[in-house]
Here is the input.
Amino acid sequence: MADYRLSRIRGRVTSHPQAVDVAFGLLVVTVILLAVRAGRPLRGEDLAASALAFALIAARRRWPLPVFGAVTAVSAAFNLHAALVGPLLAANVICTYTVASRTDRRTAVVTGVVTIVTVYVAVVIGAGRSWTDPQNAAIVVWGALAVVVGDATRIRLANLDAVEVRARQAEHSRDEEARRRVVEERLRIARDLHDVVAHHIAVINVQVGVAAHLLRERPDAAEEALAHVRHATRTVLAELSTVLDVLRSEEQDAEHASTTEPPPGLSRLTAMLDSLAAVGLRVEHRQEGEARPLPSAVDLAAYRIVQESLTNAHKHGSEPAARLLLDYTPAGLGIMVENAAGRPVPDADGCGHGLIGLRERVSSVGGRVRTGRDDGRFTVDAFLPAALDRQDTPT
Here is the structure.
């Protein structure tokens, strides 16, 4: 919380540099005038020097080198007339620091030497001091300190800028990796849907052959076979539309296996749960509503969602147990997987590659999914639309 507040304050300060310089110049001049007034009455030259110092400090970041030249000349002139004019000496040190923090090291050293020499000479002549007076050492110390601190600040800011650039590059690389994973997952989904379409086309081919064989001798059986053909044709058209939606502008993988074996679906759920139990994950399976055949794309997506969720529960959960709920409603199928959340993992906040694939599968059939951690539990809550349609039932 403290770091967040500091970052907010820093952001506000850096977003209004001119206002900060004006406030800083006013503060410096006010403090010095109060210190002078505590020792003696203020004179006209004090007020004039304070006004000049305020203006130069307020403009130092907009024009670093011109302001440094101006403050050096004005400070030397005032100190030759009245030695140790406080506001201008402070402005000289501050402007030297600004040049050192915003230019290169060679320029910083040159400005530091100019500051020390001009102020040293002006103070010695204006105050009538000896050239070796120990009090003059303060001038050297302040000038050197302004250069050293300014150069260190420049290096620190350069390092911070480099860190920010590397962070932006890393974030860009993560975004590119996420997009690549999305494309790969879409291709995998498209291949699965290709298998669905291939399966139904094989069914159509078989049923058409049966209908042609029985058309004259058993027209009732031929009619039933043609009803299956009609149902499979409608499914194929729906799946082709889904394939196009998934691929969109991406190129389709050229290597498609021409197989008639149907892809996995919820009919294989028992085998999946048995395999997970064999590796130590206990799954409490509950079903609400009456199970019914689902469209092939929805059936495949449901199987993959359950598989991905339970696999993550086994890999990342703090307990070897999970709950699975399948809720069949007239509008579709609800899927909820819940397990005890373990250590934070990339998928746990909804931004990992595993959940990218899960979301792509859900969106490919027009569904919705919500994931998150709550009270020590990690939950995947998905809904896949599959409304009841009596017209799809073959007669």
Q: What stands out?
A: The chain has eleven helices and five strands. Residues 137-214 form the longest helix (78 residues).
